Amino acid sequence: MNNHNNNHHYHANNNHRLRDRISIFVDGNNMFYAQQKNGWFFDPRKVIDYFSEESGFMLINAFWYTGLKDSQDQRGFRDALISLGYTVRTKILKEYYDDSSGRFSQKANLDIEIVVDMFNTVDQYDRVVLFSGDGDFERAIELLRSKNTHITVVSTDGMIARELRNATDRYIDLNEIRGCIEKRDY
């Protein structure tokens, strides 16, 4: 009887996690414009390293969402992301007429896909890093925080919606971590 209790005690302690589990969600289209605005691009591998190994967190998932012109669009880039460990979600860009500019524009909105993945995997992580400035994520972030998830939003000034910045636990401007995540041509 005593032996059994000791074993049970050992297993209970064994389940204790030492490191927070983290999941990364990158709104690729939103981030493309943020990087263009800043005049530099980040390295997807350095993003994973910075928010997992360098921060002491255990990476569970990394998702990248992007709109495509056609099924072959960004093929090499998508393959590279997959080889780094990202789950890549895509949607074909839709063309629509923009009344204000009088031109046709292309847009792919993957907000729903991002939110669905966040909630489908919510039991797997303790922390979320969302690369987006889109205010549409405000409600999802509030709900995740109510489940004791720590949320970090990464964007850049002029592209981060006030409501999203207010809803998050931590906001990081891309330019603050440029030295750690910038893509460099060696």
List the topology elements:
Layout: H1 2-14, E1 21-27, H2 28-38, H3 44-51, E2 58-68, H4 75-84, E3 87-92, E4 94-98, E5 103-107, H5 111-120, E6 127-131, H6 138-146, E7 150-155, H7 162-167, E8 170-173, H8 178-181
Parallel strand pairs: 1-2, 1-6, 2-3, 6-7, 7-8
Antiparallel strand pairs: 4-5
Structure report:
The chain is of the alpha/beta class and 186 residues long. The chain is built from 8 helices and 8 strands, in the order H-E-H-H-E-H-E-E-E-H-E-H-E-H-E-H.
Number of helices: 8
The coarse overall form would be: globular
Rg on CA atoms, Å: 19 Å
Structural class estimated from helices and strands: alpha/beta
| Intertermini distance | 64 Å
Low-pLDDT runs of 5+ residues are: 2-16
- Largest sheet: number of strands, sense, barrel closure: 6 strands, parallel
Order of helices and strands: HEHHEHEEEHEHEHEH
Q: Strand arrangement, largest sheet? A: 3-2-1-6-7-8
